[in-house]
Amino acid sequence: MPHFVLEYDARNPQSIESYAKRLIGKTFTDVCNEDTVNDVIVINDDYEESHKDKKRKGGLGDLIEERFFHYKCNSDSRPDFPDAGVELKVTPYKENRDGSLSAKERLVITMIDYFNVVNEPFEESHLWNKARLILLVYYLYQEHIQDRLDYKINYAQLFTPPEADLAIIKQDYDKIVSKIKEGKAHELSESDTLYLGAATKSSDSTVRREQPYSDELAKPRAFSFKTSYMTYVLNNYIVPGKNTYESIVEGDIGVDFESYITNRIGAYKGYTVSALCKLLNIVYDKPPKNLGSLIAFRILGIKSNNAEEFAKANIITKTIRIENNNTIKESMSFPTFKFNDIVLETWEDSTFGNYLRETRFFFVVYRFNDNHELVLQGSQFWNMPTKDLDEVQKVWQKTVDVIKEGVQITEKNGKRFNNFPGSSENPVCHVRPHGRNANDTYPLPDGREYTKQCFWLNNDYIYNQLDDELKSESQ
DNA sequence: GCATGATCATGC
DNA sequence: GCATGATCATGC
């Protein structure tokens, strides 16, 4: 037994929280310096060394447990303060250029045990045991600070997911568990779900684990609240500011969130764009380019283009137009990449790879009828299947190789052609220019300037990803 | 009619 | 002014 008295009641969440508020304004170095009882609990001899290792992600959390709460770390499935049911999470946030705040990372709750989780209903799950009451300790991440012990803690507060979020978190949990029950743990993706994700969790990307209903080995994954969800938590519960988001769902909807949305959009299947504009009181001189998504948001009762649930789930809306010969004319563009940045990345931590792994898409689909009028077909939530990510990896790697070897540029009819991977080389994606015009450039590693480029999803690939009922002509 | 380069237009 | 979603343009 430790021969000192804890300065808080470890059975009482409020007591733990008010003690934690003493952390506010301190750096991790301050916490260590002010710790007078560190001789009582010896964690290990090379403690300071191990906490300077940037790869040891749990380090700062361990430090707060040991040096501030004087509680021994446990790595079992119980909450950190078992008698209070409180889980401690030390997590970074960042200040954006415009002054707004974002979570810097997803919040990892607990590893997914593929064998046990299939027998655990949500209410009795390890996950919920750890997530029902979380003490969030937020520190400010700053790029220029080298030693992470110098990051400053600015908030410490208990958090429980509110009822409306819990309904979605529960659906997410069930979706992840169902996939494991189908023997598809190896096909799990963080973008399968909305607020709660199955994030990869391993020091080494080659590690694999067994799963109960398939011989395929799967990546180790952990239940985690997505970065987008944690950004919402930060801005609404920890540092409440102006809330500019409108929520779509009010009260009980009876079905899962995504069905609810696609059902509401689907109620207008077969309506022409002009009919929808009349119906929804959308007035314009000439059709705005975002009319397709505007209509969808108006149907959902959203006046702006920012739906709260979409922001929390990191859902990106894309409109798709099918020609009346059942093709899609345009490929789908994404943010440009910087030539000098992408060559420093590996696929596993690449900007575009992470974007596809973490983003869920909301497709609003229209089709031209024989009178050349655009008709609403419906909507679909989508994320890229893992096998298609492997194809993207090939294109990504070739792109990096081309840049490293020096892009070959040839000029013809006033246009500059290159040897980036084209749309016929790969079934999923290609590289093409994407800027204000041809003179909108980024520097290449060799010093030349070249038109900004981005990855595009092939138009025929997108068509193949659409649900059949969105492709077929409505009466 | 496909492939690929180029550009428009809105919102922040 | 820029980023980004959306779309146009043209040679083969």
Describe the SSE topology.
Layout: H1 13-20, H2 28-34, H3 47-52, H4 59-68, E1 87-95, E2 101-103, E3 107-111, H5 126-131, E4 134-140, E5 152-159, H6 163-181, E6 196-200, E7 209-211, E8 214-218, E9 221-225, H7 227-238, H8 257-266, H9 273-279, H10 291-299, H11 308-313, E10 315-322, E11 332-333, H12 339-342, H13 351-358, E12 360-368, E13 374-382, H14 386-405, E14 410-412, E15 415-417, E16 429-433, E17 441-443, E18 449-451, E19 453-457, H15 459-465, H16 468-471
Helix pairs in contact: 13-14
The protein binds a DNA duplex (12 and 12 nucleotides) through β10, β11, β15 and β16.
List keywords for this structure.
DNA-binding; 19 strands; ECO RV Endonuclease, Chain A; single chain; 475 residues; globular; 2 domains; three-stranded antiparallel sheet; 30% helix; alpha+beta
Describe the structure.
The chain has 475 residues and is of the alpha+beta class. It has two domains: 13-238, ECO RV Endonuclease, Chain A; 257-471, DNA mismatch repair MutH/Restriction endonuclease, type II (ECO RV Endonuclease, Chain A, 3-Layer(aba) Sandwich), CATH 3.40.600. Strand 17 (441-443) and strand 18 (449-451) form a beta hairpin. Helix 13 packs antiparallel against helix 14. The N and C termini lie far apart (76 Å). The protein has helices at residues 13-20, 28-34, 47-52, 59-68, 126-131, 163-181, 227-238, 257-266, 273-279, 291-299, 308-313, 339-342, 351-358, 386-405, 459-465, 468-471, and strands at residues 87-95, 101-103, 107-111, 134-140, 152-159, 196-200, 209-211, 214-218, 221-225, 315-322, 332-333, 360-368, 374-382, 410-412, 415-417, 429-433, 441-443, 449-451, 453-457. It is globular and about 80 Å long. The structure holds a DNA duplex (12 and 12 nucleotides).
